[in-house]
């Protein structure tokens, strides 16, 4: 009886084992997909579907309550408008100033904190405060500084000896006459002030990001360079900077994406003014969509900005991959 059971078990075990291996192999291969499936579904609902609907809206217009297909006419209307051209130049100038100021200030502050100063933990905590504030709150705070008559800095900007001939008001002084026709340069004081406010808001995250990268640089390498006669600038240029370059690239593109898409600070600080002097692309999108209720043109502009964002993301991934391979 025992030998018969063993023979039956031996006869059936290969097929059962094979079936079990197939099931385990399928489960092992597809486990990452099932773990990621909830996140994928959320992204589809909040990203993919609204993105496809925006592209659909960009080919439509609404007249007298009727939805009419217009093809690429909304894109033509957006790209041929003077408001788009002006906002594009405003965005470019804002990005250059915002990214440069934040990266330089963040790198300098991170270098100082990396020297293990007394109360470094306290300084890091204080620096991190602006990051937890919303864009709208930061805009309101900086607006209170420059409100005419009772703003903290209003008397400073209104002093004709500092800003001849009659002083300036950040919220009302228009831009100087353009040096080149069709190019809004030099910018209005409000746009420069907006750059400083945006840099103050983004500075904590960039500083901590660079500080974390600096702490991975070996002290022995820095000391060896110092012994070999390298001064502080050469050490930073030839040793520190190349070692933390991947982090700097991530910080650079993070700032660029935030600068292209951010609208809260513009909304609460300047409202796009004076006139349209601080009307960047993101605020122009808000104005067209919610101010004029022209959802077709707003969707066309959003598709254009989505292409910019996708290009920046792909470029970031490409550069990061190249750095890792190098």
Features:
mainly alpha; MetI-like fold; two-stranded antiparallel sheet; globular
Briefly, what is this?
With 326 residues, the protein is mainly α.
Structure description:
The chain has 326 residues and is mostly helical. It folds into 2 domains: 2-57, no CATH class; 75-325, MetI-like (MetI-like fold, Orthogonal Bundle). Helix content is 72%, strand content 2%. The longest helix has 56 residues, at 2-57. The chain is globular and about 75 Å long. It starts with a helix and ends with a helix.
What topology does this entry show?
Layout: H1 2-57, E1 60-63, E2 66-69, H2 73-79, H3 82-113, H4 120-132, H5 135-146, H6 154-157, H7 189-214, H8 219-227, H9 232-243, H10 245-261, H11 264-269, H12 281-291, H13 295-325
Antiparallel strand pairs: 1-2
Helix pairs in contact: 1-13, 2-13, 3-7, 3-10, 4-7, 7-10, 8-9, 10-13, 12-13
Strand order of the largest sheet: 1-2
Reported CATH architecture of the largest domain: Orthogonal Bundle
Estimate nothing, just give the exact number of structural domains: 2
Shape: globular
Number of helices: 13
CATH H-tier superfamily of the largest domain:
MetI-like
What's the Cα radius of gyration? Answer: 28 Å
The proportion of residues in beta strands is under 5%
Low-pLDDT runs of 5+ residues are: 7-11
- Secondary-structure element sequence? HEEHHHHHHHHHHHH
Q: What distance separates the N and C termini?
A: 69 Å
Mean pLDDT: 85
Structural class: mainly alpha
